[in-house]
Design goal:
The chain is 35% helix and 24% strand. The chain has 392 residues and is an alpha/beta fold. The strands form four sheets. A seven-stranded mixed sheet has the order 5-4-13-14-15-12-16, sandwiched between helices. Strand 4 and strand 5 form a beta hairpin. The radius of gyration is 21 Å and the shape is globular. 44% of the residues are buried.
Length: 392
């Protein structure tokens, strides 16, 4: 029997849209409020690990996303001169964690999720302010231009600088600078063969990965003062990475200045006391922003959304299920950032030797780093799969 309840989702990113779809499938009337004029995501690609793909199974889109997997062969960690420190492959990932690692453009995932919502569910160009978090006796209330919306549940998916979080937890210090900046590009690169890799240097990293549509996703990160910018970010990448192993020079040659996105990285160093207050639940970066060094920011947002829909009328249970896990993943991402962006030459030498030794003795470091993360499963079965079996 369909539930006659209402939810307002503040923020139309991946976490917010996943929550909207999950609640809609539970019979809730959902409204997504997005401040931007469109849902076109700011960003390049997103890596979805087996944990978030299993979460997406619950709303019936997991297999559609798995079909976009492009990584089929070798991959791993390299030095700037090209030496492999650690190697693995797509089959090893699937065998260890029960599924593939899928890299896709964020716009593809946003479009896939939006297609599962009613046409009038998403309101773009609509800034929203939490006016009242509500409680057991009264609904929550969100102010929008021209009026207000009441809801049984408000989902705060409004990002790392969440205004809803500040309203709920005004004493929390908010995000801090993680110490490094990032660059991202998605470009065509015909005729250039390469193995998917991440390369670790001194205070710098580079990653190159294929997308299913034939384009290449490349990213870089480097220690830098907060707010530092270059007049030409393509030239800045050439300066920092131009002498690294192939295919890095070929990618840099193919980049146009307008292709490059640069963002400083921030995270929530202090966990929130809870992921809810009243009838409001926080998810994704609004709840537990973390460095991208494990590629789990978006994955944890998807997990949040599915678990929130499961506990939709019991927000303390949502906090109990998500706060310890996301705190642990976020802390691991911070530790990983310190490892991969080590700048001291002696520390880098020890790091590289340790990675090579550990990888020679057992599963690659890449796989070990996902133990306890990529093997997560949602609290509810994937009812999309149940429906598919029932139709046979």
């Amino acid at each position: 029997m369909a539930e006659s309840r209402t939810a307002v989702v503040v923020g139309g990113g991946i976490g917010g849209l996943t929550a909207a779809v999950a609640l809609h499938r539970c019979g809730w009337q959902v409204t997504v409020l997005e401040r931007a004029a469109t849902l076109a995501p700011v960003g390049a690609a997103i890596s979805l690990a087996p944990n978030s793909l299993r979460a997406l199974d619950v709303i019936g889109v997991g297999d559609e996303i798995r079909d976009l997997a492009a990584w089929q062969g070798d991959g791993g960690v390299r030095t700037p001169r090209g030496r492999w420190l650690s190697r693995t492959d797509a089959d090893a990932v699937a065998a260890r964690f029960g599924g593939p690692l899928v890299l896709l453009h964020r716009a593809t995932l946003v479009a896939t999720l939006t297609a599962r919502l009613p046409r009038d569910a998403v309101r773009t160009g609509t800034p929203a302010t939490l006016a009242d978090p509500g409680d057991a006796r009264r609904p929550a209330r969100v102010s929008v231009p021209g009026g207000a919306l009441e809801a049984d549940l408000v989902v705060a998916a409004d990002g790392i600088h969440s205004a809803v979080r500040r309203t709920l937890f005004p004493d929390h210090p908010g995000p801090v600078y993680s110490g490094f900046t990032t660059w991202r590009v998605v470009i065509p690169l015909p005729g250039v063969a390469f193995a998917s890799h991440e390369t670790w240097g001194r205070g710098r990293i580079w990653g190159t990965h294929p997308l299913k549509d034939g384009r290449v996703y490349a990213y870089a990160a480097a220690l830098a003062p907060a707010g530092e910018r270059a007049p030409d970010e393509r030239a800045e990448l050439q300066r920092r990475y131009g002498d690294w192993h192939r295919p890095v020079p070929e990618i840099l040659d193919a980049i146009r200045p307008d292709d490059v996105l640069r963002h400083d990285v921030h995270h929530l160093a202090r966990p929130l006391p809870a992921l809810h207050r009243g009838r409001v639940a926080l998810l994704g970066d609004a709840a537990h922003a973390m460095p991208p060094t494990l590629g789990q920011g978006g994955n944890q947002a998807v997990e949040d959304a599915i678990v929130l829909a499961h506990h939709r009328t019991d927000l303390p249970a949502y906090t109990a299920a998500r706060l310890p896990r996301t705190t642990a993943v976020a802390r691991k991402a911070v530790r990983t950032a310190r490892l991969v962006l080590a700048a001291n030459p002696a520390a880098v030498a020890v790091r590289d030797a340790l990675i090579a030794t550990l990888s020679a003795a057992g599963p690659a470091l890449f796989l070990r780093s996902f133990d306890g993360i990529a093997d997560w499963r949602p609290p509810q079965p994937p009812y999309a799969a149940v429906e598919a079996r029932g139709s046979r």
